[in-house]
Amino acid sequence: MLRNMVESRKTSETDIRLDLNLRGSGVYAFDTEIPFFEHMLSHIAKHGLIDMDLKLRGDIGIDCHHSVEDTAILLGQMIHTQLGDKKGIFRYGNFTLPMDEVLTTVAVDLGGRFYFKYTGPALDGKFGIYDAELTLEFLQKLALNAKMNLHVVVHYGENRHHIHESIFKALGKALRQAIAIDTSAKDQIPSTKGMLE
After folding, report:
1. I need a surface site. Which of 15, 140, 162, 184 has the fewest CB within 10 A?
2. What pathway is it annotated to?
């Protein structure tokens, strides 16, 4: 497993540079011009013990869609690459997180197959310039490019900010479990097939 990676993604719509360490301590720095997005990413980093340094410029004069989507694509690709053959990792992670009146569960499988499912209240409205519906776009593209199963269930809750924050915090916690090394099987691929994509 690689410890540090620095990758870039540049299109006619976005210019992104991401420094990522899955075996970090939760240190992060963001420069995206989208404050709410940075706030959500900080929860993945902090609770996943993932170091992230993200610089992003996008066509936010139109909206934030391309910026959020392309960040998810790059982050997902880097997670998949950094995990390598996935030898020794737990592979699975799940976390149920309470945040005041909200209760959210996130479950992941880093087994190499994409699936995304969200169950919960509609994510709509805006947080500054960030459209709330972009959270689902981010999660779907992250799962697709990391080649993982990602299930998100918001069991109940009302406050829109709490709902979003609980999703990203629980995602960080679930990823932390899944990428952790299983010391009882550190030289084994966590699959009866003997390999994972």
Report:
1. 184
2. Amino-acid biosynthesis; L-histidine biosynthesis; L-histidine from 5-phospho-alpha-D-ribose 1-diphosphate: step 6/9
Rounded mean pLDDT for each run of 10 residues along the chain, 197 residues in total: 85 97 96 98 98 98 97 98 93 98 98 97 97 98 98 98 98 97 89 86
Cα gap 81→72, rounded to integer Å: 14
Q: Which residue has the tokens 């390999």?
A: 195
- Given CA atoms 33, 15, 13, 20 in this order, what sign does their dihedral have? negative
Does the 5-179 domain belong in CATH 3.30.230.40? Answer: yes
C-alpha to C-alpha distance for 196 and 91, rounded to whole angstroms? 10
**Annotated domain spans of the chain:** 5-179
CB 90 within 8 A of CB 83: no
